[in-house]
Amino acid sequence: MRMDLAGRVVLVTGAASGIGLACAQAFLAEGAQVGMVDRNAPPELDGDVVAVRADVADERSVADAVAAVAQRFGRLDVVVGCAGISGPVGRPLAETSAAEVAAVLAVNVTGQILLVKHAQPWLAEDAAVVLLGSDSAFTAAPGMVPYCASKGAVVALTRALAVELPGVRVNCVCPSVVDTPMARGDLGDVLDDPDFPVQAPGDVARQVLFLASPASRPVNGQAVLADFGLSARSAFPA
Ligand SMILES: NC(=O)c1ccc[n+]([C@@H]2O[C@H](COP(=O)([O-])OP(=O)(O)OC[C@H]3O[C@@H](n4cnc5c(N)ncnc54)[C@H](O)[C@@H]3O)[C@@H](O)[C@H]2O)c1
């Protein structure tokens, strides 16, 4: 299938690690021009690429970073919001502070809204926005209340943004566990259990590229839940 992403201008947040880095690499491999935005310095990649340091939870910082990428390439065709944090995963709710909840929402929710707000003036006709949700918007394990709440909000704001921005497609991907530094830090060796289905960052990047590509032209306001079908199973004992 042709992705038709060559020459497209793509801004990726969270591009220094994990899924965001895999997305930046995959867009570059398609011949896109890529702006890598992260609070940390990303690795150097070959291709037409610019890296900008920013904190997506800080409005001035994210506005400046978006403007820097857009001015460098002249417009934005695709915006991918990958920057995210997991927060106090594994901690019981009784030991979770308001400040910890606010920190997760600031990056995972407000950061995505600010990204799109400041990208909007630069978005080309037929632009696409792809946000990183999570299967945690739909299913939960104990000790994940702030993260799950933040990812549920990403699904809702995806729909709201699709309505808010006429002519711009806005979708989110909602993967199950992906082998990245975030997941390694939270889950450790469980990722190596052969009975536990784990995605690679490149698996998610391909989902993002499809939603960013004209190949998904009619898909808008959707959350693509990619979890090996785990959430589809009924409790019926069969
Ligand atoms: N790894 C998983 O299992 C998984 C599953 C579903 C969804 N996700 C989501 O995918 C996205 C990427 O996660 P990942 O697993 O690649 O994690 P990661 O920790 O490997 O990468 C996240 C990147 O975001 C950056 N970042 C964090 N806060 C930032 C901020 N305030 N401003 C700018 N950059 C910031 C980090 O520096 C890092 O480079 C996140 O939104 C995460 O919630 C991850």
From TrEMBL:
Full protein name: Dehydrogenase
InterPro entries, per database record: NAD(P)-bd_dom_sf, Sc_DH/Rdtase_CS, SDR_fam
Gene Ontology MF, one: oxidoreductase activity
Entry keywords, A to Z: Oxidoreductase
SUPFAM superfamilies: NAD(P)-binding Rossmann-fold domains
Similarity-based family: Belongs to the short-chain dehydrogenases/reductases (SDR) family.
One Pfam assignment: adh_short_C2
